[in-house]
Design brief:
- By secondary structure, the protein is an all-alpha fold.
- It has 2 domains: about 190 residues, Up-down Bundle (Growth Hormone, Chain: A); about 230 residues, Up-down Bundle (Growth Hormone, Chain: A).
- It contains 19 helices and no strands.
- It is globular, with a radius of gyration of 22 Å.
- The protein starts with a helix and ends in a 12-residue tail after the last helix.
């Protein structure tokens, strides 16, 4: 009788992965603008935005997955997580009205990042339990689509809303952000209600037996098996250095677009260019890269992918040198091209992770992929933490009369060089036909 009452997959899967993507983009992207507008200096913005995307997720991915599997149902974790996130973002809305909101916002976003990580684990586990192998494959693309839609709504829609509210004469900065974050909280609350009503109750969604000793042994076995793999050190270098330039560029490019000593875009312009068009082009780049890998194989696409993720960073060098005479159309075009290149190049990064995990024993493939996502986060967030400090001091280190953004974006180009080196190393070990349809591999 239970099976007959369960709703179709399209009733619960899109909202679930929209709810997975929305908090992440608020914490990682919207926080950059929020912190800066409340008076945080660039070096602190770069540090805290990267810190909030690094430490909480690492703690969750390393330590909390066994707890989620062993305590209560995944469905309950999802519902509770979405309600908790709604409450935290509502509290952050109230914090915007405090006399000194920044310490409160950092604390709340830290807790939200922890909660979001738990929700992600439960959501992915529920997806596996609720669908058979065939439907997991069929709906895998839909997961990514609604994650990206959440990115458009978060870094586009909510930033545009904050900008529009700030632009009205009756709405102060703190009030505009209070209303914007209240909108985020309301969205997550409605998603939680939707999940409570429409998510199915799969019989397999039951907690496993919990054992600290068993978890320790399992983790040790996974860890040792991974580091005993052939070419593991090349794989680690690839995971940590492939995006080194992008790690330096990520936050500072946003601050450059918004700062008075940069391009000084309004939040509405920023939300449109970065949050809507930029994210759309990034998704387009990823789709095209996946198609080409299916046609030619990952090995043959590694060079175009590393070029795509690194060479467009030059556009920010040009924008920094021409910033006094850059029309918005050209700025938007440069952002779109850079984001397309990032989406194209990042697809190669993800496919390399999938390939390297596929070379593990069957019982370790999933765990080794999860372990690689930890190194993926470290490779992006850890180098990004000092990027603001580098930008603020680089004119003292190189007193040539150029601005901090001009020098910093040239530094970014230097940071792209290790990415080419590790791609060359990866090309020597990878199955060049991997991903190609009807390959002999």
């Amino acid at each position: 009788m239970m099976e007959k009452r369960e709703k179709p997959v399209l009733c619960w899967l899109p909202p679930l992965y929209f709810a997975q993507g929305l908090p992440a983009v608020i914490i990682a992207e919207v926080s950059i603008i929020l912190f800066k507008e409340f008076g945080m200096i660039d070096s602190a913005v770069a540090f805290w935005s990267n810190f909030l995307g690094l430490l909480p997720l690492l703690l969750i991915k390393i330590f909390c997955a066994p707890v989620v599997d062993s305590v209560s149902r995944r469905r309950s974790w999802i519902f509770t997580g979405q309600l908790s996130l709604a409450g935290l973002f509502l509290f952050s809305a109230f914090a915007c009205k405090f006399s000194d909101p920044l310490p409160w916002l950092i604390l709340i976003f830290f807790l939200a990042s922890l909660t979001s990580g738990v929700h992600d684990i439960a959501a992915d586990g529920f997806y596996i339990l609720a669908l058979d192998d065939h439907r997991q494959a069929v709906y895998s693309g839909l997961r990514s689509v609604f994650n990206r839609i959440a990115a458009v709504v978060g870094s586009g829609g909510f930033i545009i809303l904050a900008g529009w509210l700030t632009g009205t004469e009756k709405c102060r900065l703190d009030t505009a952000w209070c209303l914007t974050l209240t909108g985020v909280a309301a969205s997550l609350f409605l998603l939680a209600l939707w999940s409570g009503i429409f998510m199915p109750h799969p019989a397999s969604d039951m907690p496993k037996q919990f054992s600290f000793s068993g978890i320790g042994k399992d983790f040790a076995a996974v860890f040792l098996a991974f580091f005993r793999k052939k070419h593991v050190w090349i794989a680690l270098l690839f995971l940590l250095l492939y995006r080194l330039g992008e790690a330096q560029l990520s936050v500072m490019s946003r601050l450059f677009l918004l700062s008075d000593d940069g391009l000084a875009l309004s939040k509405v312009q920023y939300g449109s260019m970065v949050g809507v068009y930029g994210v759309t082009m990034m998704l387009t780049g990823g789709v095209i890269a996946g198609f080409l890998c299916g046609r030619f194989g990952l090995g043959r696409m590694l060079l175009p992918m590393v070029l795509a993720i690194n060479v467009p960073d030059l556009l920010y060098v040009l924008l920094a040198f021409w910033q006094g005479a850059v029309p918005n159309l050209l700025t938007g075009t440069c952002i779109a091209v850079e984001q397309f290149g990032y989406g194209f190049g990042f697809a190669g990064y993800m496919l390399f992770m999938v390939w390297f995990a596929s070379t593990s024993k069957d019982e370790y493939k999933t765990s080794h992929f999860a372990l690689m996502t930890v190194f993926m986060i470290v490779g992006l967030r850890l180098p990004g933490m000092p990027s603001g400090w580098i930008a603020e001091n680089i004119t003292q280190w190189i007193p040539c009369g150029w601005t901090k953004y001009q020098l910093f974006f040239l530094w970014v180009m230097v940071c792209t060089l290790p990415g080419f080196w590790v791609t060359w190393l990866a090309g020597k070990i990878i199955d060049r036909s991997y991903g190609r349809k009807n390959s002999e591999a």
